[in-house]
Request: fold
Amino acid sequence: MKLAVIGGSSYYTPGLIEALNESDLRVELVLNGRSKEKLTQVTEVCQNLAQKEIDISMTTDLKKALDGADFVLLQVRIGGMEKRGEDESFPKQFNLVGEETILPGGASLAVRTLPYLEEFSKTLLEVSPNAKVMALTNPNNMVIDYFNRYLGIDAIGFCDLPTSLIRGVVEAFTGEKKGIEEIWPEISFKYYGINHLAFLGDINYKNKEIDIVSIAPKLGLDPLLVETLGLLPVSYLRYYYSTSSVLEIAKDSPTRGEVLAKQEETLKEDYQKAAGKKPQSLSKRPVPWYKDVVVPYLKASLTKGEMILVTQNKGALADLQDDSVAELPVIIKRGKIHRLYQGSMPPVIKGLVVSVSESERLIVDGIAKRSPKIFRQGLIAHPLIREYKKAEAVMEEIKRIDKVKWL
Reply:
């Protein structure tokens, strides 16, 4: 198979090679990035790590990278870590959560990212219209929504949070660490939500029901919260259920983007010194998404597999629109995705998930139609923003920092 990695100059791309090395996949890999110097450094490390089943080349030409691709992995970050830091810091002035996938920071990132997808999609449809697009790029819900509803591309999104939570549950229950592919045949559950706003419940492992309240402390979760919900939330739910604490901690703390930007400066120096070898500093930030999601999906596309993907809902969650995005358990058989019906969400979480889903959908609509009114509606609809004057002030700040003329 030919796999094109767009954003392949990421310093963390060697993690993909290590994950591929552990598989039996034969891959023609093309790394694409905008900076030739950085792309060359990363490619050299990847080539030195790769086993004989993996052929790696590089190009700064998007069209050449996409030409003939069977799969495309999109991992671009428009604006880099510097802009991520800005996305996560400007909400503080409005006493709002600062996180790159949650509004308002997620709206700022979307304003920069979705227009890039238009350029990307035009090129892809010209040279490889049948390629399967897989996105790690954030804000993932909005990226996948834009691809599907506006660009005519049936893209899917990847996130390691669901598999990390499931692995953690099994370890807390059994006391044993297991790989996600070993777990899938033995586990059943319900999974409700969208990317970075999802819940796990009704869990059975090896035909034994798991008491989620008893294992909550081992997962770093408050047992009272878990008992109240009757579900295990992914880690990002702290932004919604512990908002005051998150805001208090954020006052005197650097943003995640600022921390990662400093790490990238160190990595830049280490890559220059490494002369084609993997820098030791890469181990400071694990990249589980390659091993837990990307490579398993590629394998399942050729045979069969189970996983959780960000994809169009198509009726799997009864409370979301059919063409809205959901994070869903699926079975993949030779490239065909079969969504597992989850039914209606429990009332305790339904309002939150639906409101965030509709808010992000409005942001996507606003960007697609270049409509300030619809974009503003998306901000007001979000449960963490709500106030219309605050939404207007946020929109003006996004217009300023991202230099968006149509807002």
